[in-house]
Amino acid sequence: YDGHCDLHVGITNSQGVVYNYDQEGVHRAGSGWEQCISIPLVQPDMWELLQHWDSLLEEFSLEEAWLPHRYEEQQHNCFTFALAFVNRLRQGRGREPLSKAQFTERFLLPHTTEASRYLTLHQQLAHRDVYIVPLAEQEQ
């Protein structure tokens, strides 16, 4: 990723299938997201939510709001889909919805900043005569 295009956003079910929304509607993808940034949304102690996650996500993805003709590149897109799902879960737990700015600041920026640092370092090392050698097991 070079930072010059928009990123695509999706939400995974418990089996790793990514639900994502674009101009063709909701897609369920079991592959093609291998180079994604994974951002945990649920803490491990929220087991009751995790028990229903897949059915909640499937029901949400079938709603009329996510039909193809409703897609709008700037205002009703993959980011809107992810944020709306997160806010639906928050609402079910009696919590206030997040704005786009709050969602971005809390969930996306910390992880994308870290990934950007890693990618920058990787690109710099790739253009130099540097070899990365794994440490022997005793040295780790």
TrEMBL record:
Pfam family, one: DUF4796_C
Coiled-coil regions, chain positions: none
Domain MKRN2 opposite strand protein-like C-terminal: 1-125
InterPro entries the record matches: MKRN2OS-like, MKRN2OS-like_C
The protein's name in its UniProt record: MKROS protein
Organism: Sitta europaea (Eurasian nuthatch)
Biological classification of the source: Eukaryota, Metazoa, Chordata, Craniata, Vertebrata
